[in-house]
Design brief:
This protein has about 130 residues and is an alpha/beta fold. The chain is about 40% helix and about 15% strand. The protein has a five-stranded parallel β-sheet with strand order 1-5-4-2-3. The longest helix has 24 residues. It is globular and about 50 Å long.
Length: about 130
């Protein structure tokens, strides 16, 4: 790699790192214990980002299902709502939140994911019941 190539490469890496930190600063993280207050409110949509099998084994009431890496489906969502994202522990929802923020969506992510939610509120969600 030539010196100029290395400089450009370093710049691109730094730009991505700075963009990452900027997007993470904008992510509204809500505690699992506060999630229930958003269920059933039309301005909010709760999205379960886990895989199909995990979703079918239980999910938060009224949560729709979109796999965390299904960018095409995520980009078809309306920008008129605020999306509350959750996964197992919170990692995938943070990554997906960053992606959605970069595309102009309003998002919140559940700290600790469904595992934290289940620890706060035991819910039999196999059929979306709470």
């Amino acid at each position: 790699m030539h010196r100029n190539d290395a400089t450009v490469f370093s710049y691109l890496i730094m730009r991505e790192i700075l963009g990452l930190s900027e997007a993470f600063m904008q992510i509204d993280i809500i505690p699992a214990k506060e999630l229930d207050r958003y269920i059933g409110i039309k301005e909010y949509e709760i999205i379960d980002l886990r895989d199909d099998e995990e979703y079918s084994q239980g999910h938060i009431k009224d949560a729709c299902h979109i796999n965390y890496d299904d960018e095409e489906k995520l980009l078809k969502l309306s920008r008129d709502k605020t999306y509350i994202l959750y996964c197992d522990r919170g990692g995938a929802s943070m990554i997906t939140s960053r992606f959605m923020l970069k595309h102009g969506y309003k998002v919140k992510t559940v700290s600790g994911g469904i595992l934290a939610y289940r620890g706060v509120n035991y819910v039999d969600t196999r059929n979306g019941l709470s």
